[in-house]
Amino acid sequence: MATLEQNTTQQNSDQFESGLVPGSHGEGIAQREKSPPAEQTESDQAVRMQSARFEQLEPSPTNGERERKLELLIDLTLPVSIELGRTNMTIRDILDLQRGSVVEFEKLASEPVDILINGKKMAEGEVVIIEKHFGIRITSLVDTSERLRNLGK
Q: If we measure between CA atoms, which residue out of 127, 81, 131 comes closest to residue 108?
């Protein structure tokens, strides 16, 4: 029995060195890539290595630098609008609009209105009346990171 195992091991070793590998369960034979010839030296197979190179990082701006950059933008004027709600109407209904017509929005009266700055939602609030004028009391702001992301769109 020992000689049978030795012969099988020798056959497998010979097949492996010749590039032939037995298939699963002894079915078929698969060809594997041959290893490089034995006469190649270690210097022929040496791996070329280099040190990693990174760009120099610039220091983040100080508060004073940020304030100076903000001063350039501080007097910029942006459009601010309040969105009470939205709806869809057929062309027939739009053509039928006249003085006294009522347009119903999808938003409920108790829901906050959207405050849009330059067309982007920045906050929510509730409608208030100040003497004879409408106003908005801000109830929540959109997250700062979300506001900055919206400005880039």
A: 127
Residue 71, pLDDT score: 84
φ, ψ of residue 69 to 5 degrees: the values are -65, -40
CATH architecture of the domain formed by 75-151: Roll (2.30)
pLDDT in tens, 86-107: 999 999 999 999 999 999 988 8
Amino acid at 91: I
Nearest to 82 by CA among 131, 129, 111, 125: 125
Residue 80 near residue 115 (C-beta atoms within 8 A):
yes
Confidence (pTM): 0.49
Contact of 83 with 114, CB cutoff 8 Å: yes
Separation of alpha carbons 37 and 54, rounded Å? 39
